[in-house]
């Protein structure tokens, strides 16, 4: 529902939630944008048996949380800090993706407007 | 109570409790090491035929077993006092143990045949437990329960025959690799249908409130926390396969409607146990719907926390029913918190856990579910179904609480107002403790990969808004004297529709018996007593009778006919002689 509300207006420019960015990532920026870095190493993720769908840009926090869980089981409240760090990272990642979605929407609107004028 | 120490109840309690402890330690070990054990025990091997019993142990099965052992142990402990006037207590306890055994078979099976054994065992034992009091009402309820569950058994049997194509019944091997297969789609659809019967989703809902004819400890164990969740558990196991199916979207709608329907019906109900049963139905709808959104771990989480506080709620209801001289109607109750404070404490806490009051067990699971519903990509109707049902949960819980605890003393007779049965109370305190801590404990334990939720403020607060509105309405409705309100009868048809679970019982009991009996009657009159009678028995008799009367005329007058024919012959002879000359 939350995502639905956020993305409802984007349908006017034929943009849906799972669409990938189509414009140049640098367009409209006067400084150099840096792509996100994958901090966690693949072999660490494999050895920690992290499922593929969780191997995202916050996986290094997830690895810390998993190792903390292993050490403190069953008193898992001791890992509150690690869990919080992971969730904050995931939230920042989500915000980046939403901003990118909004940028895509606005760029498409702009393109539509320019094409309409021409 | 002196013989408690060596009674079958205590021995069973002790055994089950120890099993629970063992399961707890294994569960921790399995989660820690992310372990799964699949055992195959060959029972018989004969030429190329081998009969193998497979057992799957992972954190999910161990955790579920732990909860089943815990609830069954305290229910058996509770039964010692609740069923003390029962002459055949051993039979009762053995039935409960058989139920637990069937449940275990279902939980640890990666094989559809052994699932059927557990599944059928659950149906059979639950029938025996529903008809335990052996009166007309419980016989009818038992038959309804058994036959509704039988539909699910038949679906599982069909699944078994479909799975012959694969050469093995270990479904777990096919879940990921065969999920685009058309046959697997059929199997998945039938598994969903089977789960819908066991978990009493629309259109198979009517058996769950009817099954409240069982003794209250049975309701606490069977019809709230374990049997009805068997369907949910089966779908959790099969979830990997079902995700892309259209049927799962249909299940989302049906389960959403189930929770909404049950929430409304609970507000119209006055039977204490039926209100709790309808609330169970509502929570089952919640589990099924979150499951059909592809979040099985959340469904499992809610299944476990719900099992705790719902079993406790039923146990409290049992004490109240005992105390009220076997009256279940909440209109006769009121102000009981003054007389049974400890039971009222348990009742209130379990009710609040059901509503999702922070930081009780239900809060952790329900709030997470609702936030993920808000977070996910769903249509508005499903969204409204979820939130209206949450408000309705608060609505009927508050209404029940007001009727029982706060409203005026309205007892039929003052009968045994006591709160001193420490056997029952002790077992309830175990569940009370779990109803408080299990939500937090499980949310840490089972979510190795936590969910991130990021919502606008008002959407985040939506649960609190609907809960406040629901609670307020519950308060108002409990004070409303509906029979004194003029023009109440104007809503008679609507009320009838809503309080009769959207006419669901008509579909399964009245519909199945009345229309078929009517058809039978018309067939009897038109075919058996009509056409087939005319063309066989009665018609033949009529024809025979007619001809025999006809022949009888000759038979009875044969001498006269003989003489008459003699005279005619003589006349002809005479004429011939005369004309020959």
UniProtKB/TrEMBL annotation, chain A:
PROSITE patterns attached to this UniProt entry: CHCH (PS51808)
Superkingdom of source: Eukaryota
Main subcellular localisation: mitochondrion
Cellular compartments per GO CC: mitochondrial inner membrane; mitochondrial intermembrane space
Localization (cell): Mitochondrion inner membrane; Mitochondrion intermembrane space
Key words of the record: Disulfide bond, Electron transport, Membrane, Mitochondrion, Mitochondrion inner membrane, Respiratory chain, Transport
Cleavable signal peptide: none
Membrane topology classification: Peripheral membrane protein
Pfam families from the UniProt entry: NDUF_B7
Function: Accessory subunit of the mitochondrial membrane respiratory chain NADH dehydrogenase (Complex I), that is believed not to be involved in catalysis. Complex I functions in the transfer of electrons from NADH to the respiratory chain. The immediate electron acceptor for the enzyme is believed to be ubiquinone.
Family: Belongs to the complex I NDUFB7 subunit family.
Protein name: NADH dehydrogenase [ubiquinone] 1 beta subcomplex subunit 7
UniProtKB/TrEMBL annotation, chain B:
Entry-linked InterPro entries: NADH_DH_su5_C (IPR010934), ND/Mrp_TM (IPR001750), NU5C-like (IPR003945)
GO process annotations (BP): ATP synthesis coupled electron transport; electron transport coupled proton transport
Membrane topology: Multi-pass membrane protein
Top EC class, one word: translocase
Reaction(s) the record says it catalyses: a ubiquinone + NADH + 5 H(+)(in) = a ubiquinol + NAD(+) + 4 H(+)(out)
Transmembrane segments: 7-31, 51-77, 89-108, 114-133, 154-174, 220-240, 246-268, 307-324, 336-364, 384-406, 427-447, 453-477, 497-517, 559-579
EC number, UniProt record: 7.1.1.2
Pfam families referenced in this protein's UniProt entry, alphabetically: NADH5_C, Proton_antipo_M
Residues in NADH:quinone oxidoreductase/Mrp antiporter transmembrane domain copies: 109-384
Domain NADH dehydrogenase subunit 5 C-terminal: start-end pairs: 396-576
Gene Ontology cellular-component annotations: mitochondrial inner membrane
Purpose of the protein: Core subunit of the mitochondrial membrane respiratory chain NADH dehydrogenase (Complex I) that is believed to belong to the minimal assembly required for catalysis. Complex I functions in the transfer of electrons from NADH to the respiratory chain. The immediate electron acceptor for the enzyme is believed to be ubiquinone.
Protein name: NADH-ubiquinone oxidoreductase chain 5
Taxonomic source organism: Spodoptera frugiperda
The organism's taxonomic lineage, starting at the top: Eukaryota, Metazoa, Ecdysozoa, Arthropoda, Hexapoda
């Amino acid at each position: 529902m939350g995502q639905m509300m956020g993305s409802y207006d984007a349908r006017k420019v034929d943009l849906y939630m799972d669409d990938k960015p189509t414009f140049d990532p640098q367009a409209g920026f006067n400084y150099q944008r840096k792509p996100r870095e994958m901090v966690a190493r693949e072999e660490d993720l494999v050895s920690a048996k992290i499922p593929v769908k969780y191997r995202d840009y916050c996986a290094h926090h997830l690895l810390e949380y998993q190792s903390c869980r292993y050490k403190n089981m069953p008193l898992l409240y001791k890992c509150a800090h690690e869990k919080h760090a992971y969730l904050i990272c995931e939230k920042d990642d989500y915000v980046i993706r939403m901003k990118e979605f909004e940028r895509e929407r606005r760029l498409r609107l702009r393109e539509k407007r320019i094409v309409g004028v021409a | 109570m002196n013989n408690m120490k060596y009674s079958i109840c205590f021995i069973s309690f002790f055994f089950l409790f120890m099993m629970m402890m063992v399961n707890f330690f294994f569960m921790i070990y399995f989660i820690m090491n992310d372990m799964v054990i699949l055992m195959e025990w060959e029972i018989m091997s004969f030429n190329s035929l081998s009969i193998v019993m497979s057992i799957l142990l992972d954190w999910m099965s161990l955790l579920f077993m732990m909860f089943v052992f815990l609830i069954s142990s305290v229910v058996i402990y509770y039964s010692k006092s609740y069923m003390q006037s029962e002459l055949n207590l051993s039979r009762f306890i053995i039935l409960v143990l058989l139920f637990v055994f069937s449940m275990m078979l279902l939980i640890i099976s990666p094989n559809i045949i052994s699932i059927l054994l557990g599944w059928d065992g659950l149906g059979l034992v639950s029938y025996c437990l529903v008809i335990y009091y052996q009166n007309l009402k419980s016989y009818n309820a038992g038959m309804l329960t058994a036959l509704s569950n039988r539909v699910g058994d038949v679906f599982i049997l069909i699944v078994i025959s479909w799975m012959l194509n694969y050469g093995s019944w270990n479904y777990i091997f096919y879940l990921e690799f065969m999920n685009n297969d058309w046959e697997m789609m059929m199997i998945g659809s039938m598994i969903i249908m089977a789960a819908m019967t066991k978990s009493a989703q629309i259109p198979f809902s009517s058996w769950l409130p009817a099954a409240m004819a069982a003794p209250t400890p049975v309701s606490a164990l069977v019809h709230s926390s374990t049997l009805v969740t068997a369907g949910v558990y089966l779908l959790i196991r099969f979830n990997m396969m079902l995700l892309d199916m259209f049927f799962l979207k249909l299940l989302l709608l049906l389960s959403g409607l189930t929770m909404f329907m049950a929430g409304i019906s609970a507000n119209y109900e006055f039977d204490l146990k039926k209100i709790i049963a309808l609330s169970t139905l509502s929570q089952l709808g919640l589990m099924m719907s979150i499951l059909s959104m592809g979040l099985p771990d959340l469904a499992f989480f809610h299944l476990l926390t719900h099992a705790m506080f719902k079993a406790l709620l039923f146990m409290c209801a049992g004490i109240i029913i005992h105390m009220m001289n076997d009256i279940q109607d909440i209109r006769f109750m009121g102000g009981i918190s003054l007389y049974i404070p400890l039971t009222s404490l348990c009742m209130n806490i379990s009710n609040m856990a059901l509503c999702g009051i922070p930081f009780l067990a239900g809060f952790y699971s329900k709030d997470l579910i609702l936030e993920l519903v808000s977070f996910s990509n769903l249509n508005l109707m499903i969204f409204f179904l979820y939130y209206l049902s949450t408000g309705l949960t608060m609505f009927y819980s508050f209404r029940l609480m007001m009727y029982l605890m706060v409203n005026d003393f309205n007892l039929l007779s003052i009968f045994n107002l006591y709160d001193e049965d420490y056997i029952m109370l002790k077992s309830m305190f175990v569940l009370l403790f779990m109803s408080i801590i299990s939500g937090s404990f499980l949310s840490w334990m089972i979510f190795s990969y936590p969910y991130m939720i990021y919502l606008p403020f008002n959407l985040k607060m939506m649960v609190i808004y609907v809960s406040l509105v629901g609670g307020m309405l519950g308060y108002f409705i409990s004070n409303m004297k509906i029979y004194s309100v003029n023009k109440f009868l104007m809503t008679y048809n609507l009320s009838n529709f809503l309080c009769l679970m959207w006419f669901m019982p008509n579909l399964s009991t009245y519909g199945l018996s009345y229309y078929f009996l009517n058809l039978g009657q018309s067939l009897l009159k038109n075919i058996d007593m009509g056409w087939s009678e005319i063309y066989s028995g009665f018609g033949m008799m009529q024809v025979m009778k007619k001809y025999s009367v006809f022949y009888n005329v000759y038979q009875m007058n044969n001498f006269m006919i003989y003489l008459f024919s003699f005279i005619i012959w003589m006349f002809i002879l005479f004429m011939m002689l005369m004309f020959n000359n």
